[in-house]
Each structure stands twice: as structure tokens, then as C-alpha cells.
Specification:
With 214 residues, this protein is α/β, with parallel strands linked by helices. It folds into 2 domains: 129 residues, Rossmann fold, CATH 3.40.50; 80 residues, Rossmann fold, CATH 3.40.50.2300. 53% of the residues lie in helices and 14% in strands. It is built from 10 helices and 6 strands; from the N terminus they run E-H-E-H-E-H-E-H-E-H-E-H-H-H-H-H. The chain has a 6-stranded parallel sheet, with helices on both faces. Helix 5 links the parallel strand 5 and strand 6. Helix 7 crosses helix 9. The longest helix has 15 residues. The two termini are 34 Å apart. Pfam families: GerE, Response_reg. InterPro entries: CheY-like_superfamily (IPR011006), NreC/VraR/RcsB-like_REC (IPR058245), Sig_transdc_resp-reg_C-effctor (IPR016032), Sig_transdc_resp-reg_receiver (IPR001789), Tscrpt_reg_LuxR_C (IPR000792), WalR-like (IPR039420). Keywords: DNA-binding, Phosphoprotein, Transcription, Transcription regulation.
């Protein structure tokens, strides 16, 4: 898998580059600002780009803006945005109307290389990766006086894991449930929320996240 990395902190950038390469990824470019990333993606699109939210020169949202431009101009390039803080409005903006090949994680989440590798693999496969710390406030906001109030506590737990991009198998492991039980909960969630049960994991993530954004 070919990865491009945009991170202004030289030590963090070098360390992450080394970890990625040791884990079998090819780091095609590791740059310190958004314009350099955009130029690298334009010249030789990677499988996925890892982008810090705030980057030079203004340290505002240059990284997020670059991620959105990559998504618009190179839809087959996956994008993983990293942030120091939970910023729901930025995550929702990134997910847009088509949360495929995209992810939003807190930097603290990538302390374990296995978690980062799993996120990149899921993104390149067409999935969405959302930090669990972001799913919780979205769930709370959506439930207040809304259709989520129709769900049981267990169904809410399953929905939260679905919103993170988890497969049924992963939900089984997380909640210690049988596959048949998880399948029943998923069907009930779609029925109660009037969401299309297509049987496609990526489409269900799209449906769930679209609902939570509302």
C-alpha cells in the first residue's frame, strides 16, 4: 500500500514514516505542509493520504482543506485525517455525502501501529473509519428527542460500533455476541430508523453516518 503523509512536526513525521515502513507500507512522500501534499498527490496519486488537520502556514484548517480537495479531485485516493482534539464539525465536513475511503482519528489513537494499519486497510478497501471518541457525542446529539430514542441500549451499542466502521464480526467480538444476535440487532436498527438494509457494510456505514449527521 502506497501512503503519503503530511505532518508539520518533523519528529512525528519521521517517526510515523519509520513505523509505516517497518509495517510494510510504502511511504511515497512525507511532507510538512498542505501545498506540498497536494502537489505530490497530483503528480503520483497514492492509495491513501494521512493529513494533519492544522498545518502551515496559518495552522488553521490547511490540512482539512487539502483533504477535501484530495477527496474532490482524486476520489480513488483514501484520506485519513488526524487531529489532536475532537472536532465534530470538521469530521462531519470531511465525511460529506459519501463517507467512503475516508477516516478521522485522534492522534492519540495511533499510538498502536496495529490500529493505524487497520484503519488504513479499511479506508483503502472503501470503508469509513471514525474515532470512537467522536461517535459518542454524535450518538447523544442524535438521540435527544429523535428516532434514536426508539432503540434499546444494546441496539445503541451496536449502532455506535457500526458508525465506527466495524463489521458484524468485529461487533461480535466487542460485545461478546453471536453472529445471529448481531444480525438481528442490525436488522432492527435499520427497521426502526427506516434505513435501507442493503447487506453492504460500506453502504450501511454511509446510511448510519448520514443519519447521525442530521
Amino acid at each position: 500500500m502506497r501512503v503519503m503523509l503530511a505532518e508539520d512536526g518533523a519528529l512525528f513525521r519521521q517517526g510515523l514514516t519509520r513505523l509505516l515502513e517497518e509495517s510494510g507500507f510504502t511511504v511515497a512522500a512525507a511532507v510538512g505542509d498542505a501545498p506540498s501534499l497536494l502537489a505530490a498527490v497530483r503528480d503520483d496519486p497514492p492509495d491513501v493520504a494521512i493529513v494533519d488537520v492544522r498545518m502551515p502556514p496559518g495552522f488553521r484548517l490547511e490540512g482539512m482543506d487539502a483533504a477535501l480537495r484530495i477527496r474532490a479531485g482524486h476520489p480513488h485516493v483514501g484520506v485519513l485525517v488526524l487531529s489532536h482534539h475532537i472536532e465534530a464539525q470538521h469530521a462531519v465536513r470531511l465525511l460529506g455525502d459519501d463517507p467512503r475511503r475516508v477516516g478521522y482519528l485522534l492522534k492519540d489513537r495511533i499510538a498502536e501501529m496495529s490500529e493505524l494499519a487497520d484503519a488504513l486497510t479499511r479506508i483503502v478497501a472503501g470503508g469509513a473509519v471514525v474515532d470512537p471518541a467522536l461517535v459518542a457525542p454524535l450518538m447523544g446529539r442524535g438521540r435527544a428527542g429523535g428516532p434514536l430514542a426508539r432503540l434499546s441500549e444494546r441496539e445503541l451499542q451496536v449502532l455506535a460500533l457500526m458508525a465506527e466502521g466495524r463489521t458484524n464480526q468485529s461487533i461480535c467480538r466487542s460485545l461478546t455476541l453471536s453472529p445471529k444476535t448481531v444480525e438481528t440487532h442490525v436488522r432492527n436498527i435499520f427497521r426502526r430508523l427506516r434505513l435501507p438494509d442493503t447487506g453492504d457494510d460500506h453502504r450501511r456505514v454511509l446510511a448510519v453516518l448520514s443519519y447521525l449527521r442530521s
